[in-house]
Amino acid sequence: MITINKDLLVIGSLLHDIGKIYSYEYDKPPIRLSSEGKLLEHIVIGLNLTSDAYKNTMPLLDKEDYLHLQHMIASHHGKLEWGSPIVPKIIEAEILHTADNLDAIDFKYNKAVQDKSDNQEWSDWIKGLGKEVWVK
Predict the structure, then answer these.
(1) What is the DSSP letter of 60?
(2) How high is the pLDDT of residue 57?
(3) What 8-state DSSP symbol labels residue 80?
(4) CB half-sphere exposure, 89, CA atoms < 13 A
(5) Among 74, 118, 122, 129, whose Cα sits 20 to 30 Å from the Cα of 38?
(6) Domain boundaries, the chain
(7) What is the C-alpha separation between 12 and 94, in angstroms, rounded?
């Protein structure tokens, strides 16, 4: 039976998008990708940030948990074609990817409902979902 490391799952959930801090510029609207974000993307930046943090706080996390955390950050998009350099290979990474993907799907459904006109029953085609959705 697989045991889920809940502490690792929580840490990975909190840190998987940490690279977005430097991937975007927030100083004036609209929010836009920074040069660092365009060149490295948030996954690579997040891996670098957690690597630096690990080097400074090694006693707080054992090497296996650190590697698993890095893997969770690297694989949270779930597929190579979705921007992950690797697919999930541990249960915590699979759970994180699934939750992150569900959050993205929820966002797309809510945006479709928010953008609908008064008597509209179905959304326009939503590219990220590959379908129309009921918005009435």
Answers:
(1) G
(2) 79
(3) G
(4) 11
(5) 129
(6) 6-100
(7) 11
